[in-house]
Amino acid sequence: MQQPIVDYHRDEEDHWVAELECGHNQHVRHKPPWVERPWVTTEMGRTAMLGERLNCKKCDRDEPRDNPVR
């Protein structure tokens, strides 16, 4: 299910994690050549992607929220 990005935070290993509107979190790593997400490496890039939709597999599996209700 497609869900919009509403915010970001870093995990304990300093990787960027997108917070989705549905309450789930999703890592948004830039690890070429397998994952190309150069936008995640800058604040301006991350800000530009707010509202963009990512496929949320946790929603597809009907998993509980990672984040409290906003």
Question: How would you describe the overall organization of this protein?
Answer:
This protein has 70 residues and is α+β, with helices and mostly antiparallel strands. It has one domain (2-60). The chain is 16% helix and 29% strand. The chain has a four-stranded antiparallel sheet with strand order 3-2-1-4. Strand 2 (16-20) and strand 3 (25-27) form a beta hairpin. The longest helix is centred in the middle third of the chain and has 7 residues, at 43-49. The radius of gyration is 12 Å and the shape is globular.
How far the N terminus sits from the C terminus, by CA atoms, comes to 20 Å
Query: How many strands?
Result: 4
Number of helices: 2
Mean pLDDT over the full residue set:
93
How many domains? The number is 1
Structural class: alpha+beta
Shape: globular
* Main β sheet profile: 4 strands, antiparallel
Strand order of the largest sheet: 3-2-1-4
Q: What portion of the residues fall into strands of 2 or more residues?
A: 25-35%
- Written as H for each helix and E for each strand, in order along the chain, the element string is EEEHEH
State Rg: 12 Å
Percent helix: 10-25%
Descriptive keywords:
70 residues; alpha+beta; 4-stranded antiparallel beta sheet; 2 helices
Structure in a nutshell:
This protein has 70 residues and is of the alpha+beta class. The chain has two helices and four strands.
